[in-house]
Amino acid sequence: METKVILTEKEMPTSWYNIQADLPEPLPPVLHPGTGQPVGPADLAPLFPMELIKQEVSQERYIEIPEEVQEIYRIWRPTPLVRAYRLEKALDTPARIYYKYEGVSPAGSHKPNTAVAQAYYNMKEGVKRIATETGAGQWGSALSMGCMFFGIELKVYMVKISYQQKPYRRVMMETWGAKCVPSPSPDTKAGRDVLARDPDCTGSLGIAISEAVEDAVSRDDTKYALGSVLNHVLLHQTIVGQEAKKQLEKIDAYPDIIIGCIGGGSNFAGVYLPFVKDKIEGKKPDLRIINVEPEACPTVTKGPYAYDFGDEAMLTPLIKMYTLGHSFVPPPVHAGGLRYHGMAPIICHLHKLGLVEARAEYQIPIFKAALQFARTEGHIPAPEPAHAIKVVIDEALKCKESGEKKTILLALSGHGHFDLGAYDEFLSGKLQDYEYPKEKVEEALAKLPKM
Ligand SMILES: *Cc1c(COP(=O)(O)O)cnc(C)c1O
What we know:
Layout lengths: L3 E2 L9 E3 L23 H4 L5 H8 L4 E3 L2 H7 L7 E3 L1 H7 L4 E6 L10 H13 L4 E6 L3 H13 L2 E7 H6 L1 H9 L3 E5 L5 H9 L7 H13 L4 E3 L6 H20 L6 E5 L4 H15 L7 E7 L4 H4 L2 E5 L8 E5 L22 H8 L4 E5 L1 H15 L5 H20 L4 E6 L7 H8 L10 H8 L6
Parallel strand pairs: 5-15, 6-7, 6-9, 7-8, 10-11, 10-15, 11-14
Antiparallel strand pairs: 1-4, 2-3, 4-5, 12-13
Helix pairs in contact: 2-11, 3-5, 4-15, 5-6, 6-8, 9-10, 11-12, 15-16
The protein binds pyridoxal-5'-phosphate.
């Protein structure tokens, strides 16, 4: 019985899978905030290269991965699928646990899968400069690397709390040649407005997105890039799930439960969308897919399904999604990548259709789970996928009680080597839990756009 399943470079998928071709009902349209009408390509053209705008609404089932992108993917892809024998043994569970590990990329997470693709399409259309935001710094560092490969200048607005907690992510961005500033920053009107209201604001992804969008639309040579949420981002991440499916096929396995964490939703959707296809087609009707989010920012488990802005300053189109309100600033949990008020429309739609489920977890139990993983499997996970590990352990322990030999697939989106400050807090007993900030959410939800 092998411990890990490796694909050769020749076995790496050469197309991305587009769930839009197989949805039982189409996605709700994205709306223009001024007119209330569906947005068209012309509305998005100041922000994104045309090829990505096309991918955003494409109904084609498979979209070919450009050869130049495949070449870069091959530096670290295909990524391993590993059987967590030691974790299974420690839990004394009959469940079989597999994890698909994206921490082997140069940036340490799944994010380069879309960063490289997005930088490529920008380069192809002659874009010289990109502006973006980053939460914990994973997206900023991944896009810094992507832009480095294709000779594009990059400015990153980094959520201030993470900029302070994680200085090495900034250094990583600078090493690949990007410029990084803490957000809210004085460099944009959106940033200056927030600082005037609240000089001590620790920032949020919503605010940082406003800054990056403003930067991009106010310059002719600059476009914007988003590391999660959008359909084309989830599309690029499906390389992960397609690999995992092939790897499981090689050992005649198929998951009963797939578990991952959701911030904007890209890593986990990338893993499960190729499996959702089977569920929609009735090949695996009882497959369970569990999206895990922080109790401090419980978008899908507690938010309403409503039209909202993607950013704080209300610059983006209106997206139908589960949301805690565009003005919501989540408590500073260490899983910075999970501090977003909204969620990928594709995930929200699948949740509404009953094809996937969601759960919220507190930060202390997730660090306990992360420690158990590190002390059995060796890998030190990022705090984001540690949310998923907590639920994997819960489900494996349920299998122990029931005696069921379920196959569990864990989306292990990245390593935690830049999160050791958080581990230090946990190990020294200083880590605190944040309750669901009910009043702040209610306040933010009162500001949802009236439709
Ligand atoms: C950014 C990030 C996430 C959250 O973003 P998604 O788009 O939901 O995947 C999760 N895990 C890691 C390691 C990340 O870097």
